């Protein structure tokens, strides 16, 4: 029979409750976190590199930091002071969440421009057919495809789901050939098709809001980084690490 020293047994007795408490904090915060007596819509609670500090992500996509009992909050980004400079850990977490959220969107609900050859990289773009900079970006899509960059469009009507742009984008997604309809709409052509089919425009708009999209175009890189606004092909190529290929 294996023997344990009194020191080992005492140490185990000390550590086990602490470990159990540490492991239960995220669950406790998820279940009990409230403000002014109102339960908060907590999606997930995760530990951070700081002892006793946890990242809280709400169902709305917003996040902040809390101590173990939820009595104190910190709103803002958490940085690591590494040998290579400051690293934004909060943004890294957002990027991972964006990758997962984008990955959950079925290919059938995207409008895809991929070119002839197999893409070297894929960017996802929240777009609005009434947005001038979205049209400008769309004009560069053939060049992006030639550079090996596929473009996957998701809908984000800046004016909300009651806007004219939302109706046009529903027409685009309902069209027999959505990619042709997208190009026509961005060239200012009026679409005659229906906007009443089962389409993902509303759900994609909600997804964009959850991911922090505030304007269009909003380009999501493969690692989840969000780049707002128009980006010229040569710069986007460099950002994807394809300029040396």
From TrEMBL:
InterPro entries: DiS-bond_Isoase_DsbC/G, DiS-bond_isomerase_DsbC/G_N, DiS-bond_isomerase_DsbC/G_N_sf, Thiol:disulfide_interchange, Thioredoxin-like_fold, Thioredoxin-like_sf. Keywords: Disulfide bond, Periplasm, Redox-active center, Signal. The keyword Lipoprotein does not apply. It is found in: Periplasm. Residues 1-22 form the signal peptide. Residues 27-91 form the Disulphide bond isomerase DsbC/G N-terminal domain. It comes from the Bacteria. Residues 120-240 form the Thioredoxin-like fold domain. Its main location: periplasm. Gene3D superfamilies: Disulphide bond isomerase, DsbC/G, N-terminal (3.10.450.70), Glutaredoxin (3.40.30.10). Coiled coil: none annotated. It holds the Pfam family DsbC_N. One of its GO terms (cellular component) is periplasmic space. Required for disulfide bond formation in some periplasmic proteins. Acts by transferring its disulfide bond to other proteins and is reduced in the process. Belongs to the thioredoxin family. DsbC subfamily. This is Thiol:disulfide interchange protein.
